[in-house]
Amino acid sequence: MGKYCVEKALIFATHNAHKLKEVQALLTVPVQGLAELGCTEDIPETGFTLRENAFQKAMYVYERFGRPCFADDTGLEVEALGGAPGVYTARYAFLPDGFEARMMAGDRRVLADIQAAETAAGTEAAAPQPTFAQNMARLLHKMRGLEGPQRRAAFITVICLIEADGQPRYFEGRVEGEILNAPAGAEGFGYDPVFKPEGYDRSFAELDLATKNGISHRGRAVAALQQYLNATR
Fold this sequence. Notes:
The chain is an alpha/beta fold. Helix content is 35%, strand content 18%. It contains eight helices and seven strands, in the order βαβααββαααβββαα. A hairpin with a 6-residue loop joins β3 and β4.
């Protein structure tokens, strides 16, 4: 018997039912989300990188529940916006107006400034979260008038796994593509309706789950995680 079974499932540190469904379809071991663990609190994400955020979430669950777990963090990086929204992909719509300009100027201090402002206002986790539609609307607004190669973008997912030994292990997936001029499709979540992966003529939101999982950033990161689990059973 493997080290993960129904009674002792691997915990995925997420409240996002869409992400949980995607990952459960990819991994061959039982996976449960935070709701099944009985964890209802919002886990802070205060890192300056995807790796830092993934580690912070995984360690939070490991320390409080003593269960092997993994967490992911995903960023959308748009070349013409200096890599924005990046680590703030999920909260993009509510960021200061000058965020993109500072990113394009290479001023990464903007990340520390945003974190300081969030800390002063309370915790990031307690702050209101924008909707998927609000995030996409800001992105499309900032990219008005850009065409061709100027619309190049990439999705990156970093997974941090913490098992019984308490040591973090990282797995990464990346997919190149471009930002569409308008949303297309009704599947998926997040920025899926405006992201067209390289080599395809449809957005992520127009692809079925199996096709998306086979090429997506999260799918590739989870595949690397699965390879590790296969090797250590």
